[in-house]
From TrEMBL:
The protein, known as: AMP-binding protein
UniProt xrefs under InterPro entries: AMP-bd_C (IPR025110), AMP-bd_C_sf (IPR045851), AMP-binding_CS (IPR020845), AMP-dep_synth/lig_dom (IPR000873), ANL_N_sf (IPR042099), ATP-dep_AMP-bd_enzyme (IPR050237)
Gene source species: Micromonospora echinofusca
Domain AMP-dependent synthetase/ligase residue range list: 15-371
Highest taxon above the source species: Bacteria
SUPFAM superfamilies: Acetyl-CoA synthetase-like (SSF56801)
Cross-referenced Pfam families: AMP-binding (PF00501), AMP-binding_C (PF13193)
Ranges of residues in domain AMP-binding enzyme C-terminal: 422-501
Length: 516
């Protein structure tokens, strides 16, 4: 019997700790691992009754919450493939996601009836409600307890379709595999717990907060990792500082996994959160700005650890508490490359570069089968089993990875390479800059110039032109001349993806004649 089916992770917890709580909702409900397995079985039976079988895709357009756990494992039990669509998408984005992935069934809830009505006008896929019938959509009768054993699947079988954040273009539908996902979990377990064995958490281990939504790869990996090691999971609808504070008081989390934007909100919150029992905060999803990290650690005296990876490549590098205690941590790095990860730094011609040389981060991985909606992009992503991350960086002699930027975001200014993240980190330290995004703009003389889109602090009364001059002068003191923004444009806000990443593609370019 193969263990690659992700549903076998739940099988293991149902076998070794059936009566322990495995899942909590923020509303006070809870389920044991045995109850989770039985309700996932109810979903599996209901999907089979709809004609869903192994390899069939089922799209989920559901508000984030604990019930999604049953739907994920229910699909995996029968070898079906969840297509997790963001519940924040509008009708057009939902229709686009369905068209890209071609599911045989779409499951929805009644939280956005207007959106559903707009989608149903042209729907070409059967739709079922997971609750009461809504907008004429019949309900899926899943809420019963059924013991359904997980079917065998091949390691390379499609496990899930996730949508990337779309920070540099439209979101792409990524196909990930059962075997690749399990391998990524094992690598993370090895560096976190020292073993790849499942169910190693103590029976009284604190639950893990699944801070990211379950339509996101970070949310799904957090859930799977909690169950893999044997910890309960707390699933909420969405992040909020007050919500987080309440859950921290209720559950006494000893660790947290957050996005940089969440840490930013925590740092800027007026209230103090109960971090007394938290030993560390793991941050992933994008680089965290140094001023934000420093402000958090100074306020709460809790170390921030980083984890570098992606939906397409899985867990690649990071720092653990053991690294910190051993003095291995290096400032500005993405972390030590995890044991078992095959990583190369390559030039544009595909040649592997030596230690210390900058190039694209390329990882051998069986996690992804590519993009289901873009064959050309898939060929660029996965070549001969190596995933091309699009991130630029280098590895030092100690096996520590440093990132310098995104390959496609790099700005070529007068022949020099300029990385937007470096400029952004410096400008965020200015007391009158609330947030910033740096873009490249065509320039006849220099090819491209860096342009900074700045969100001002709310209580700042300086005229735009004066503040722009101050910001440029501030940058010149801290950066090489070719990295200094040539233009400053003030904007009320910077657009973010559903998971909090700032979007370069969606940010408006400054018009000629704006503030300098």
């Amino acid at each position: 019997m193969t263990a690659d089916n992700l549903a076998r992770i739940l099988d293991g917890r149902r076998a070794d700790r059936p009566d322990l709580p495995g899942l909590y909702g923020e509303d006070g409900r809870s389920w044991t691992f045995d109850q989770i397995d039985l309700l996932a079985g109810g979903v599996a039976a209901a999907l089979r009754a709809e004609g869903v079988g192994a390899g069939d895709r089922v799209a989920y357009y559901l508000t984030n919450g604990p019930e999604i756990v049953f739907f994920l494992f229910g699909a995996w039990k029968i070898g079906a493939v969840p297509v997790t669509v963001s519940s924040l998408y509008n009708a057009a984005e939902l229709a686009e996601s369905v068209a890209k992935t071609d599911p045989c069934l779409l499951l929805v809830d009644g939280r956005r009836p207007d959106m559903l009505a707009a989608f149903l006008a042209d729907a070409r896929v059967p739709v079922r409600s997971v609750g009461e019938p809504v907008a004429g959509i019949p309900a899926l009768p899943w809420q019963r307890e059924v013991r359904v054993p997980a079917v065998d699947v091949a390691p390379e079988a499609e496990a899930c379709i996730l949508f990337t954040g779309g920070t540099t273009g439209r979101p792409k539908a990524v196909s990930v595999t059962h075997g690749g996902t399990r391998g990524s979990l094992q690598r993370l377990a090895r560096v976190s717990t020292g073993t790849t064995e499942e169910g190693t958490a103590a029976p009284d281990a604190r639950p893990n907060l699944i801070a990211l939504p379950l339509f996101h790869s970070g949310g799904q990996h957090s859930l799977l990792f909690a169950f893999f090691v044997g910890r309960p999971a707390v699933v909420w609808e969405r992040f909020g500082v007050d919500r987080l504070a309440d859950l921290m008081q209720r559950f006494g989390f000893d660790n947290l996994f957050l996005l940089p934007t969440m840490v930013f909100d925590i740092v800027h919150a007026e209230r103090d959160l109960p971090f007394d029992g938290v030993k560390s905060v793991l941050v992933a999803g994008q680089a965290i700005a140094w001023p934000v990290r420093r402000a958090f650690e100074q306020r709460y005296h809790v170390p921030i650890l980083v984890n570098y990876g992606s939906t397409e490549a899985g867990h690649i590098a990071g720092w653990t508490s053991r690294d910190m205690k051993a003095g291995r941590w290096k400032p500005g790095s993405a972390g030590r490359v995890y044991p078992g990860v095959e990583l190369q730094i390559r030039d544009d011609a595909g040649n592997a570069l030596p230690t210390g040389a900058e190039g694209e981060v390329v990882v051998r991985s069986e996690l992804t089968r590519g993009y289901v909606d873009d064959a050309e992009a898939s060929r660029e992503l996965v070549r001969d089993g190596w995933v091309h991350t699009g991130d630029m960086g280098y590895v030092d002699a100690d096996g520590v990875l440093f990132l310098v930027g995104r390959k496609r975001d790099m700005i070529k200014c007068g022949g020099f390479q300029v990385w937007p993240e470096e400029i952004e980190d410096e400008l965020r330290t200015h007391p009158l800059v609330h947030d910033v995004r740096v873009l490249g703009r065509p320039d006849e003389r220099l090819g491209e110039i860096p342009v900074a889109l700045v969100v001002r602090e709310a209580d700042d009364a300086l005229p735009d032109a004066d503040l722009a001059d101050r910001i440029v002068a501030y940058a010149r003191e801290r950066l090489a001349h070719f990295k200094t923004p040539r233009r400053i444009e003030f904007v009320p806000a910077l657009e973010r993806s559903a998971t909090g990443k700032l979007s370069r593609a969606a940010a408006p370019l400054p018009e000629e004649g704006g503030p300098r």
